Amino acid sequence: MLGVLVNVLTVILGSGIGLLFRKAIPQKVSNATMIGLGACTLYIGISGSLCGENVLIIIASIVLGVITGTLANIDGAITKFSENIEARFKKNGKKASVSEGLITATLLFCVGSMTVTGSIDAGVSGDCTILLTKATLDLVSSMMLASTLGIGVMLAAVSVLVIQGGLVLLSGLIAPFMGAGAINEMTSVGSILIMMIGTNLMGITKIKVADYLPAILYAPIIYHIVILLSNLIQ
Predict the structure, then answer these.
(1) What are the extents of the domains in the chain?
(2) Which residues of 78-97 are buried (b: 16+ CB within 10 A; e: fewer)?
């Protein structure tokens, strides 16, 4: 769990530094930075989405994911939680982007091959190299995100602890099912959600991205179902 704890600390540290800088950034600069950050997020999403090899898996995962998320009202639950936090950080009529910051940071910090592969390596062999490398990257990312999106980015440290910590603890069980193919499909689906975040940050869309989160879990499951059916047909 060393790599996970270091990653959590780097997110908290980076977010804290970003929040300090946020106070000195004028609103017009913050708005312009938000658009630039959105464009970079969109690029990250597009790059990651190309990992997938089967578009049908991606489509099925997204459709099933948003149906599940909408019925469970994930976005509503996160929004309600965020409103309680936002009330504590209101200043001059402005609200900290708690919900936006939390979801954006969670996706950027917890989606991708480094998270899954690094957590499995740490759990199975005790090798934390990938997670420590990721922690360094997240330190810089959290600074930039928190300076624009606020306290919600720091709260994403909890997501890192729960998701990466869970993967480490369950690594022995999930390792056989999380080969390169499954990870690639999961990364691709998660990256599409990151693209949605990017367009939201740029003000182009207002997508309830949280309702799509179950799609990430569906991707490896559907991948293995496809592989199983392919083997049966052959």
Answers:
(1) 2-233
(2) bbeebeebbeeeeeeeeebb
Q: Is 26 helix (H, G, I), strand (E, B) or coil?
A: coil
Joined together, the tokens standing for residue 40 give 């970079």
pTM of the model: 0.83
**Which residues make Cβ contacts (< 8 Å) with residue 68, sequence separation at least 6?**
214, 218
Q: Across the strands, what pairs with 94? A: 91
CB 73 within 8 A of CB 230: no
Mean pLDDT by 10 residues, the chain (234 residues): 93 93 81 86 90 93 97 89 71 62 90 85 89 91 89 92 92 87 92 92 90 94 94 84
**Type of residue found at 204:** I
Query: What is the chain's percent helix, strand, coil content, to nearest 5?
Result: 85, 0, 15
Distance CA 126, CA 3 (A): 9
Distances in Å between the Cα of 193 and the Cα atoms of 1, 16, 29, 42, 106 are: 27, 26, 26, 10, 11
Task: Answer whether 200's CB lies under 8 Å from 100's CB.
Answer: yes
* DSSP annotation string for 53-72: S-HHHHHHHHHHHHHHHHHH
50, 186 contact by CB (below 8 A): no
Q: Which two tokens stand for residue 225?
A: 């179902």
